[in-house]
Amino acid sequence: MPFESPVIVALDYPDAESALALADRLNPQRCRVKVGKELFTACGPSVVESLQYKGFEVFLDLKFHDIPNTTANAVKAAAELGVWMVNVHASGGRSMMGACREMLERYPGNRPLLTAVTILTSLEQSDLQEIGLDIEPMVQVQRLARLAQESGLDGVVCSAREARALRGALGDDFLLVTPGIRPAESNTDDQKRIVTPAQAIENGSSYLVIGRPITRSDNPANALEAILATC
Ligand SMILES: O=C(O)c1cc(=O)[nH]c(=O)n1[C@@H]1O[C@H](COP(=O)(O)O)[C@@H](O)[C@H]1O
Question: Start and end of every Orotidine 5'-phosphate decarboxylase domain (predicted)?
Protein backbone atom coordinates (compact mmCIF):
# COMPACT_ATOMS: atom_id res chain seq x y z
CA MET A 1 0.00 0.00 0.00
CA PRO A 2 1.55 3.35 -1.07
CA PHE A 3 0.14 5.11 2.03
CA GLU A 4 1.13 3.06 5.10
CA SER A 5 -2.16 3.20 7.00
CA PRO A 6 -2.00 2.44 10.73
CA VAL A 7 -5.65 1.31 10.81
CA ILE A 8 -6.83 -2.30 10.73
CA VAL A 9 -10.63 -2.51 10.54
CA ALA A 10 -12.10 -5.43 12.53
CA LEU A 11 -14.75 -7.14 10.41
CA ASP A 12 -16.67 -8.75 13.26
CA TYR A 13 -19.71 -10.06 11.37
CA PRO A 14 -21.74 -13.29 11.44
CA ASP A 15 -21.61 -13.90 7.69
CA ALA A 16 -19.48 -13.22 4.62
CA GLU A 17 -22.15 -11.12 2.93
CA SER A 18 -22.15 -8.50 5.71
CA ALA A 19 -18.36 -8.48 5.99
CA LEU A 20 -17.83 -8.10 2.26
CA ALA A 21 -20.52 -5.39 2.04
CA LEU A 22 -18.63 -3.37 4.68
CA ALA A 23 -15.32 -4.02 2.88
CA ASP A 24 -16.87 -2.67 -0.32
CA ARG A 25 -17.42 0.64 1.48
CA LEU A 26 -13.70 0.88 2.37
CA ASN A 27 -10.63 1.56 0.24
CA PRO A 28 -7.87 -1.08 0.57
CA GLN A 29 -5.34 1.74 0.08
CA ARG A 30 -6.55 3.35 3.33
CA CYS A 31 -6.70 0.41 5.76
CA ARG A 32 -6.16 -3.28 6.30
CA VAL A 33 -8.89 -5.60 7.58
CA LYS A 34 -9.08 -8.16 10.36
CA VAL A 35 -10.92 -11.47 10.20
CA GLY A 36 -11.60 -12.82 13.67
CA LYS A 37 -13.20 -15.78 15.36
CA GLU A 38 -16.85 -15.04 14.57
CA LEU A 39 -16.42 -14.48 10.83
CA PHE A 40 -13.83 -17.23 10.33
CA THR A 41 -15.86 -19.81 12.27
CA ALA A 42 -18.92 -19.00 10.19
CA CYS A 43 -17.26 -18.73 6.78
CA GLY A 44 -13.80 -20.30 6.82
CA PRO A 45 -10.90 -19.43 4.50
CA SER A 46 -13.10 -18.36 1.57
CA VAL A 47 -13.92 -15.01 3.20
CA VAL A 48 -10.19 -14.30 3.60
CA GLU A 49 -9.66 -15.08 -0.08
CA SER A 50 -12.59 -12.84 -1.09
CA LEU A 51 -11.10 -9.94 0.89
CA GLN A 52 -7.68 -10.53 -0.64
CA TYR A 53 -9.29 -10.58 -4.09
CA LYS A 54 -10.74 -7.14 -3.31
CA GLY A 55 -7.18 -5.93 -2.60
CA PHE A 56 -7.15 -6.02 1.21
CA GLU A 57 -4.27 -7.28 3.32
CA VAL A 58 -5.77 -9.51 6.02
CA PHE A 59 -4.88 -9.89 9.69
CA LEU A 60 -6.15 -13.37 10.65
CA ASP A 61 -6.98 -12.89 14.34
CA LEU A 62 -7.65 -16.38 15.67
CA LYS A 63 -5.46 -15.96 18.77
CA PHE A 64 -4.14 -19.52 18.68
CA HIS A 65 -3.44 -20.92 22.16
CA ASP A 66 -2.53 -24.62 22.27
CA ILE A 67 0.45 -26.99 22.46
CA PRO A 68 3.42 -26.06 20.23
CA ASN A 69 2.77 -28.66 17.50
CA THR A 70 -0.91 -27.77 17.11
CA THR A 71 -0.30 -24.03 17.15
CA ALA A 72 2.64 -24.15 14.73
CA ASN A 73 0.53 -26.12 12.23
CA ALA A 74 -2.36 -23.67 12.62
CA VAL A 75 0.03 -20.81 11.87
CA LYS A 76 1.28 -22.80 8.85
CA ALA A 77 -2.30 -23.04 7.54
CA ALA A 78 -2.60 -19.26 7.94
CA ALA A 79 0.64 -18.76 5.99
CA GLU A 80 -0.71 -21.00 3.19
CA LEU A 81 -3.71 -18.65 3.04
CA GLY A 82 -1.35 -15.75 2.37
CA VAL A 83 -2.47 -13.59 5.28
CA TRP A 84 -0.51 -10.45 6.19
CA MET A 85 -0.54 -11.08 9.96
CA VAL A 86 -1.51 -13.94 12.28
CA ASN A 87 -1.53 -14.07 16.08
CA VAL A 88 -1.17 -16.43 19.03
CA HIS A 89 -1.56 -15.94 22.80
CA ALA A 90 1.76 -15.06 24.46
CA SER A 91 0.61 -17.00 27.54
CA GLY A 92 1.05 -20.16 25.42
CA GLY A 93 4.69 -19.75 26.40
CA ARG A 94 8.16 -19.64 24.88
CA SER A 95 8.16 -23.12 23.24
CA MET A 96 4.82 -22.51 21.58
CA MET A 97 5.78 -19.08 20.24
CA GLY A 98 9.20 -20.38 19.13
CA ALA A 99 7.63 -23.32 17.28
CA CYS A 100 5.31 -20.94 15.41
CA ARG A 101 8.17 -18.64 14.47
CA GLU A 102 10.26 -21.58 13.27
CA MET A 103 7.39 -22.89 11.16
CA LEU A 104 7.10 -19.54 9.39
CA GLU A 105 10.77 -19.75 8.32
CA ARG A 106 9.42 -21.96 5.52
CA TYR A 107 7.77 -18.91 3.95
CA PRO A 108 10.71 -16.55 3.33
CA GLY A 109 9.12 -14.55 0.49
CA ASN A 110 5.67 -14.10 1.94
CA ARG A 111 5.99 -14.84 5.65
CA PRO A 112 3.03 -13.48 7.61
CA LEU A 113 3.87 -11.20 10.51
CA LEU A 114 3.50 -13.11 13.78
CA THR A 115 2.19 -11.27 16.84
CA ALA A 116 1.26 -12.39 20.34
CA VAL A 117 -1.72 -11.25 22.41
CA THR A 118 -0.56 -10.14 25.86
CA ILE A 119 -3.52 -9.18 28.08
CA LEU A 120 -6.88 -8.63 26.36
CA THR A 121 -8.02 -5.00 26.27
CA SER A 122 -11.35 -6.09 27.81
CA LEU A 123 -9.54 -6.94 31.07
CA GLU A 124 -8.46 -4.71 33.94
CA GLN A 125 -6.65 -5.45 37.17
CA SER A 126 -9.71 -6.84 39.01
CA ASP A 127 -10.32 -9.32 36.16
CA LEU A 128 -6.71 -10.51 36.36
CA GLN A 129 -7.05 -10.99 40.11
CA GLU A 130 -10.07 -13.27 39.57
CA ILE A 131 -8.03 -15.59 37.35
CA GLY A 132 -5.17 -15.74 39.84
CA LEU A 133 -2.93 -13.03 38.39
CA ASP A 134 -2.31 -10.65 41.27
CA ILE A 135 -0.48 -8.16 39.10
CA GLU A 136 -1.06 -4.87 37.25
CA PRO A 137 -1.91 -5.28 33.54
CA MET A 138 1.08 -3.06 32.64
CA VAL A 139 3.53 -5.36 34.45
CA GLN A 140 2.11 -8.58 32.99
CA VAL A 141 1.96 -7.07 29.48
CA GLN A 142 5.63 -6.07 29.74
CA ARG A 143 6.60 -9.54 30.90
CA LEU A 144 4.73 -11.28 28.06
CA ALA A 145 5.95 -8.80 25.45
CA ARG A 146 9.56 -9.42 26.44
CA LEU A 147 8.98 -13.17 26.20
CA ALA A 148 7.39 -12.72 22.75
CA GLN A 149 10.38 -10.69 21.56
CA GLU A 150 12.84 -13.28 22.91
CA SER A 151 10.82 -15.97 21.09
CA GLY A 152 11.40 -14.20 17.76
CA LEU A 153 7.94 -12.71 17.24
CA ASP A 154 7.40 -9.55 15.22
CA GLY A 155 5.34 -7.83 17.88
CA VAL A 156 2.50 -7.98 20.36
CA VAL A 157 -1.16 -7.10 20.69
CA CYS A 158 -1.68 -4.89 23.74
CA SER A 159 -3.54 -1.79 24.88
CA ALA A 160 -2.10 1.51 23.67
CA ARG A 161 -1.95 2.36 27.38
CA GLU A 162 1.10 0.10 27.54
CA ALA A 163 2.59 1.20 24.20
CA ARG A 164 4.88 3.94 25.49
CA ALA A 165 6.57 1.68 28.04
CA LEU A 166 6.89 -1.18 25.55
CA ARG A 167 8.29 1.06 22.81
CA GLY A 168 10.98 2.25 25.22
CA ALA A 169 11.83 -1.24 26.46
CA LEU A 170 11.61 -3.24 23.23
CA GLY A 171 12.82 -0.83 20.54
CA ASP A 172 11.47 0.81 17.40
CA ASP A 173 11.17 -2.31 15.23
CA PHE A 174 8.89 -4.32 17.50
CA LEU A 175 5.26 -4.06 16.34
CA LEU A 176 2.68 -2.81 18.82
CA VAL A 177 -0.80 -3.71 17.57
CA THR A 178 -3.39 -1.95 19.71
CA PRO A 179 -7.14 -2.66 19.89
CA GLY A 180 -9.37 -0.96 22.45
CA ILE A 181 -9.25 2.23 20.39
CA ARG A 182 -12.09 4.66 20.94
CA PRO A 183 -12.38 8.17 19.48
CA ALA A 184 -13.29 10.70 22.21
CA GLU A 185 -16.93 10.43 23.32
CA SER A 186 -17.63 7.16 21.53
CA ASN A 187 -19.16 4.11 23.25
CA THR A 188 -16.61 1.97 25.13
CA ASP A 189 -18.68 -1.23 24.55
CA ASP A 190 -16.96 -4.20 26.25
CA GLN A 191 -13.48 -2.62 26.17
CA LYS A 192 -11.79 -1.50 29.41
CA ARG A 193 -8.22 -0.39 28.61
CA ILE A 194 -9.16 2.17 25.93
CA VAL A 195 -7.19 4.98 24.26
CA THR A 196 -8.03 7.54 21.53
CA PRO A 197 -6.46 7.07 18.07
CA ALA A 198 -4.26 10.17 18.38
CA GLN A 199 -3.02 9.19 21.85
CA ALA A 200 -2.31 5.63 20.67
CA ILE A 201 -0.08 6.91 17.86
CA GLU A 202 1.62 9.33 20.24
CA ASN A 203 2.28 6.45 22.64
CA GLY A 204 4.06 4.51 19.89
CA SER A 205 1.41 2.13 18.52
CA SER A 206 2.28 0.66 15.12
CA TYR A 207 -1.27 -0.37 14.19
CA LEU A 208 -4.69 0.52 15.58
CA VAL A 209 -7.31 -2.26 15.47
CA ILE A 210 -10.71 -0.59 15.23
CA GLY A 211 -14.06 -2.32 14.85
CA ARG A 212 -17.37 -0.87 15.99
CA PRO A 213 -16.43 2.85 15.85
CA ILE A 214 -16.02 2.31 12.07
CA THR A 215 -18.28 -0.65 11.22
CA ARG A 216 -21.30 0.70 13.13
CA SER A 217 -20.95 4.18 11.70
CA ASP A 218 -23.47 5.36 9.09
CA ASN A 219 -20.53 6.12 6.83
CA PRO A 220 -17.60 3.78 7.57
CA ALA A 221 -15.27 5.38 5.00
CA ASN A 222 -15.82 8.83 6.54
CA ALA A 223 -15.35 7.42 10.04
CA LEU A 224 -12.05 5.88 8.92
CA GLU A 225 -10.88 9.12 7.31
CA ALA A 226 -11.85 11.11 10.41
CA ILE A 227 -9.71 8.77 12.52
CA LEU A 228 -6.78 8.87 10.05
CA ALA A 229 -6.92 12.67 10.13
CA THR A 230 -6.20 12.66 13.86
CA CYS A 231 -3.32 10.17 13.66
O1 LIG B 1 -6.36 -9.58 18.98
C2 LIG B 1 -7.18 -8.66 18.85
O3 LIG B 1 -7.38 -8.14 17.76
C4 LIG B 1 -7.80 -8.12 20.08
C5 LIG B 1 -7.08 -8.23 21.24
C6 LIG B 1 -7.50 -7.54 22.39
O7 LIG B 1 -6.82 -7.56 23.43
N8 LIG B 1 -8.65 -6.82 22.34
C9 LIG B 1 -9.43 -6.76 21.21
O10 LIG B 1 -10.44 -6.06 21.23
N11 LIG B 1 -9.05 -7.45 20.09
C12 LIG B 1 -9.91 -7.44 18.88
O13 LIG B 1 -9.99 -6.10 18.38
C14 LIG B 1 -11.32 -5.82 17.91
C15 LIG B 1 -11.83 -4.62 18.64
O16 LIG B 1 -13.09 -4.27 18.14
P17 LIG B 1 -13.90 -3.00 18.64
O18 LIG B 1 -13.99 -3.08 20.15
O19 LIG B 1 -15.24 -3.15 17.98
O20 LIG B 1 -13.12 -1.80 18.18
C21 LIG B 1 -12.14 -7.08 18.13
O22 LIG B 1 -12.22 -7.76 16.88
C23 LIG B 1 -11.36 -7.92 19.11
O24 LIG B 1 -11.47 -9.29 18.87
Answer: 6-227
